[in-house]
TrEMBL record, chains A, B:
PANTHER family: HTH-TYPE TRANSCRIPTIONAL REGULATOR ADHR, REDOX-CYCLING DRUG-SENSING TRANSCRIPTIONAL ACTIVATOR SOXR. PROSITE patterns: HTH_MERR_2. The keyword Repressor does not apply. GO terms for molecular function: DNA binding; DNA-binding transcription factor activity. Keywords: DNA-binding. SMART domains: HTH_MERR. The lineage of its organism: Bacteria, Bacillati, Actinomycetota, Actinomycetes, Kitasatosporales. Residues 1-70 form the HTH merR-type domain. It comes from Streptomyces tardus. This is MerR family transcriptional regulator.
Amino acid sequence: MRLAELSERSGVPLATIKYYLREGLLPPGERISATQARYGEEHLRRLGLARALIQVGRVPVATAREVLRAVDDESLDLSRRLGTAVSSLPPVVREEKAEPVSTSAQQRARELLTALGWEDPHPNDPSHLSLVSAITALESLGYPCEVAHLLPYGRLASELATSDMDLMAEFEGTTRLEAAVALTVLYEPVLLSLRRLAHAREADSRYREPEGG
Amino acid sequence: MRLAELSERSGVPLATIKYYLREGLLPPGERISATQARYGEEHLRRLGLARALIQVGRVPVATAREVLRAVDDESLDLSRRLGTAVSSLPPVVREEKAEPVSTSAQQRARELLTALGWEDPHPNDPSHLSLVSAITALESLGYPCEVAHLLPYGRLASELATSDMDLMAEFEGTTRLEAAVALTVLYEPVLLSLRRLAHAREADSRYREPEGG
């Protein structure tokens, strides 16, 4: 398809597509004349992923390029490409906002992973750092964050990862990686929205006083 | 305690405490002379909550004031105070980033809540809007978001809400509300970090090729 059709089918404005092409978020099309190129289904998919990262995941353009580079890196196996792509995403807790992590939070995070039967993550893994920094905040405010409190979160995360990976298995090769990255990013707001709705519902059923009662 | 001790015990700089007092995030202390006031444990706790909102939850100061006002509004019952406080938090998906929601995403969100046995939320509930907008993004990119895919997320959110509310029940009255708001905000990064770690782990166990193999 031509650029105009790619824009129409994806719903992404022409100027944005040209910008993504210049920034290397989208591979160049197949040249068919001095001024025209042809684009395929893989461009349509990649465009969708770039938009998911940038618009929904709030990922800066330079970061999106890193993530997509990892997705395309055929020198690595699927697991390493996914790991690199996900760890290139903006961290859950931004570093400049995080307090210095405490030793006891590091200790708790380690105990949590042991209790879950998970391997030790790389000490610089951004998700691990976000976890430790969230535990540090809970500790310093005196809120409950014993391993026993954190464990249900870990168990549920594990169940979600299994069902997510089952979904991803329906896609093949690079497409599977694109789906994995998109689902990581796009299901985060689904999860948080549902948790807030569930909180409101649970609070209602426990603490709502009858109207005019 | 005096202002200096409040600063020392909370680890919050004096200038920040004075700013919070001016902005109404912290109630004034009890005046003991023309230039001095005394602060209590409730100030220490409230200061912790304000910091959790602003530093970890990335909540703007004006929004934090709204949230804390809802926590303190004794004209409402606990359930409504919590509901108002949580819906005053910045939404999971920021409106300016969200695409216009689709009718089919609204339909799916409704079916999901029915399948979960949850009541219809208020159509302007910010968490519900975030959910619909996340489903719109998944749909428009052609990623799986059938009710069957969303349901495990809803079930797990429900389990988390139950265990969260059990935790909160250990606190009394306004303190319980403070804990509820803090745990809503502070456990979000815990949950997302653990999900990303679980993804990496699950991908490893499914797709990692042996080194040098």
